[in-house]
Amino acid sequence: MKRWSAKRSCRSAIKSKLPPNLAGISIPLPACTCRPDHIKAAVNGSLRRLKTDYIDLLYQHRVDPNVPMEEVAGTVKELIAEGKVRHFGLSEAGTASIRRAHMVQPVAALQSEYSLWTREPEHEIIPTLEELGIGLVPYSPLGNGFLTGTIEAATIFDRSDFRNSIPRFTPEARKANQALVDLLRAIGERHGATPAQVALAWLLAQKPWIVPLFGTRKLDRLEENLGALSVALTVGDLDEIEDVSSSIKVQGDRYPEEMLRRSGL
């Protein structure tokens, strides 16, 4: 990564995140803060480690309830003026925080979980982003792997797998939520596509400014996911997905309760 960033072309981009203040949360995550001095130190450290002059898109990983959003946005605005950052992004922020940040420094993108089994952003977040001209980068667009069709009720995760702590991944919830995968598989059979490709194609069909963010360690999965760009869902496909999925009640929360409390602030 360091070697790549030092030689990157003008068409490459670096995105980075400011770690949140997660003190008091039992799940092992970094306990930091989004105070202005920490933001500047974090950015300077990233620039040094990445051997680059600027970060293209700097996200606030989670809203820090102890630091006013105006201070965070103002600090990023200063970093943009200094040429160290080009664009400002938020992650899992609520509409009030988005608007407060956007008034100080235009927000380029919001990263939030959004997929066929996590559709809460459709209520308030997506209309707000459309109004303000902010892009949406949905993370976990494949439902932490569930929407790929490779996970069943009987699947056993490694003890270190974070999904063991997610209510939506209990065996009972997986069995109940299998109907969503069955829907994706049925649509995919018409297009010669996998469930994962249909799930991503559905997201791409929602808004032109939605860019799914998927993660993988395997080249074949990367190629499979990129294949979603060639899946042209018809109006009939999209209507069917909407009709059938609306009748499926997704079982289990997407995060443990203590992590959900840090979302949508």
Summarize the structure in words.
By secondary structure, the protein is α/β, with parallel strands linked by helices. The protein folds into two domains: 1-113, NADP-dependent oxidoreductase domain (TIM Barrel, Alpha-Beta Barrel), CATH 3.20.20.100; 142-265, TIM Barrel, CATH 3.20.20. It has helices at 2-7, 36-50, 69-81, 95-104, 125-132, 171-191, 195-204, 219-226, 235-246, 257-260; strands at residues 15-18, 55-60, 85-91, 107-113, 135-139. It has a five-stranded parallel sheet, with helices on one face. Strand 2 (55-60), helix 3 and strand 3 form a beta-alpha-beta unit. The model is unreliable at 1-11 and 21-31 (pLDDT under 50).
How is this fold's topology laid out?
Elements: H1 2-7, E1 15-18, H2 36-50, E2 55-60, H3 69-81, E3 85-91, H4 95-104, E4 107-113, H5 125-132, E5 135-139, H6 171-191, H7 195-204, H8 219-226, H9 235-246, H10 257-260
Parallel strand pairs: 1-2, 2-3, 3-4, 4-5
Précis, in short:
The chain has 265 residues and is an alpha/beta fold.
Number of helices: 10
Q: Spell out the CATH superfamily of the largest domain.
A: NADP-dependent oxidoreductase domain
**Global outline:** globular
* Average pLDDT, all residues: 89
Total beta strands: 5
Measured as a percent range, the helix fraction is 40-55%
Second CATH tier, the architecture of the largest domain? Alpha-Beta Barrel
Rg calculated over all Cα atoms: 19 Å
